[in-house]
Structure formats: structure tokens, C-alpha cells
Design brief:
alpha/beta, UDP N-Acetylglucosamine Acyltransferase, domain 1, seven-stranded parallel sheet, 22 strands, 32% strand
Length: 186
């Protein structure tokens, strides 16, 4: 019973918070009545951008959703974000339905263009849309980079850094080897 009351309070709080955000951002922000976002989840919506939350999206404590000027972020229904996930969208990110993200997942659809005149301080970026299919399971501490396309029903192992195209029903793991390069005391 206590859990149901807590969930109801979370839904009501999210609705109130999103209604206030909607007042300031109008057509740039769309959401459904039933969303469950932790009170300290951050939404940052830039000018001429679009953030679309389909029904029953859930975000745990510390998550951040940043949709920069002119960008589009769409999150499908029944999608869940673990603790401290962060999405920074400068171009376009699309997440399908029923996708689960473990804690500390990072998603970026851009890279800094360090070759631009003025270097990093010039604030130039290279873009590539990110598409994540339906029913994808993303493990803890995964980083998804620009230009990535992940098919439906995929699993991504914890700690992976993902870039590229992955077809439906793929299990993705990034193998790493641990190597001792030197001992402190001989």
C-alpha cells in the first residue's frame, strides 16, 4: 500500500511539474497525464526544440534530459531511466517503447568539433541522430554516441561504449582486457 501511495504522489508531482514547464515552453514540450519522474530529475528545453514524452515514461533520481536549441528528443511509452541517466540532444534522439536504461547511462547525438577554427572554445559540434528501438535493455554505465542505431529487442552489456548500427535481437558486449603495466614495488 505504501508503494502505491508513493507512486501516486510521484505521478501527481510529475504532472504539476510538467504543467508548469508546459506553460513556459508551449509546443516545445509534450507529455501524457501519467509520467513518473523523480522530483530532482532535470528537464532543460532550448528554443525551437521539441521534447516528447509518450505515456508512462519513468525517470529515477538525478536523471537529466537536455534538449538544446532546435533539437528533438522523443521517448516512447513505458520507457524507464535508472538513477543519474543523462541525455544531451543537440540534433535528434529517438527512443522506442518499453526500453529500460540502467543507472548512469549517457546518450549524446553530437561531438565537439575540435578541428573547427577556434578549437573547443568555438562551440562547434558534429551531429548524428541516435535511434534506439523498442524493448531495448541498456545496462549500467553505458555510453551511446552520435550516429548510433540500435534495433528492437537488443541488450547492451554494462559499461559498453556504443557507436554504429546494431540489428534487431542483438546482444552487444564490449570486451576489454585488464593488463598490469607495472608494479609499484619491485
Amino acid at each position: 500500500m505504501k508503494r502505491h501511495i508513493k507512486n501516486l504522489i510521484s505521478v501527481i508531482f510529475s504532472f504539476l511539474k510538467f504543467s508548469i514547464i508546459k506553460l513556459f515552453h508551449g509546443k516545445c514540450f509534450r507529455f501524457h497525464l501519467i509520467e513518473r519522474f523523480s522530483p530532482n530529475t532535470e528537464l532543460d528545453i532550448g528554443k525551437n526544440s521539441l521534447l516528447v514524452l509518450k505515456e508512462a515514461v519513468r525517470a529515477h533520481s538525478g536523471s537529466k534530459f537536455r534538449v538544446r536549441n532546435g533539437a528533438k528528443l522523443t521517448i516512447g511509452k513505458n520507457t524507464t531511466f535508472g538513477y543519474k541517466c543523462m541525455i544531451t540532444c543537440r540534433h535528434e534522439i529517438s527512443i522506442g517503447e518499453g526500453t529500460d536504461f540502467g543507472p548512469n547511462v549517457l546518450i549524446y547525438d553530437h561531438d565537439h568539433d575540435f578541428k573547427a577554427t577556434g578549437g573547443l572554445t568555438a562551440g562547434k559540434y558534429k551531429y548524428g541522430s541516435v535511434q534506439i528501438g523498442n524493448e531495448v535493455w541498456v545496462g549500467a554505465n553505458v555510453i551511446i554516441l552520435k550516429g548510433t542505431k540500435i534495433g528492437n529487442n537488443c541488450v547492451i552489456a554494462a559499461g559498453s561504449i556504443i557507436s554504429g548500427t546494431f540489428p534487431d535481437n542483438t546482444i552487444i558486449i564490449q570486451k576489454r582486457e585488464t593488463e598490469v603495466i607495472k608494479y609499484r614495488k619491485e
